[in-house]
Amino acid sequence: MEERMIASPSFYADWRHVFKLDPDRTIPDEALAAVCRSGTDAILVGGSSGVTYDNTAKLLARIRRHDTPCALELTDPENAVPGFDGYFIPMVMNARDKDWLIGHQTSAIEEFGFLLPWESVAGEAYIVLNGESTAARVSGADSAIPESRVMAYGQLADRLWRVPVVYLEYSGTFGDMSLTRKVRGGLRQARLFYGGGIRTLEQARQAGEAADTVVVGNVIYDDLEAALATVEAVKISAKEQDHVF
Ligand SMILES: CC(C)=CCC/C(C)=C/CC/C(C)=C/CC/C(C)=C/CC/C(C)=C/CC/C(C)=C/CC/C(C)=C/COP(=O)(O)OP(=O)(O)O
Ligand SMILES: O=P(O)(O)OC[C@@H](O)CO
Ligand SMILES: [Mg+2]
Question: Which sites bind Mg(2+) (predicted)?
């Protein structure tokens, strides 16, 4: 396996575990405090439906009561709230409608790009692999693709386009860890984010071994204790990973 080079330091360079909070969902203050104090590396704010400027700004203000780094996934220019530590711009590699790969992003940059704090902006090459997820429906993702194509999307984003983050998105279902490992092994400079369906310590540990950064979302709203426990599981897996890679 070729040696991987990690891109120059950036706001997400050391993230191993991330909680994703959806501005369209309700989280009580105590639960939010527990999430922020859990030892996670960052809070990622994002969702694929029902996100508005108002609910995003309100969530940011509440997160700012704590010290946890906080980034926004920009899925609509209207929701571009200033004041986050960083901004991610998703591009769906396996979108059937290429507007979700490049079209909407180009239009948004054309109109509003001059406002972006570019030093704190990173592209995310999403590969959406749960065809039942909202992200798949919104972007019309073709999720029924062979491993070879998933690998090719990852390498195209990493090696040709130098996108700093490749994101294997299984939102709502636990994904294929063997494929996740393979995708990561094929990247030269990009960080591999894995997200989807993590509900148990064992799943968190496996994802932590397979990916550079593990994103935990929906379980926060369904089973907070289980969500909090994923932090330690991912961090422990980091130690194992250091010996493997
Ligand atoms: C100060 C400041 C910040 C100024 C900004 C100025 C500005 C507006 C600049 C333009 C920025 C820009 C380029 C914006 C582009 C926005 C855009 C249209 C991006 C496309 C996003 C995209 C590909 C969406 C498809 C769906 C997707 C992949 C979403 C990613 C997030 C995600 C998967 C969330 C999970 O969703 P969830 O709802 O949790 O899903 P489940 O139901 O399965 O749980
Ligand atoms: O919500 P879950 O299924 O944990 O997925 C996390 C994240 O990848 C969603 O974009
Ligand atoms: Mg969600």
Answer: 22, 48
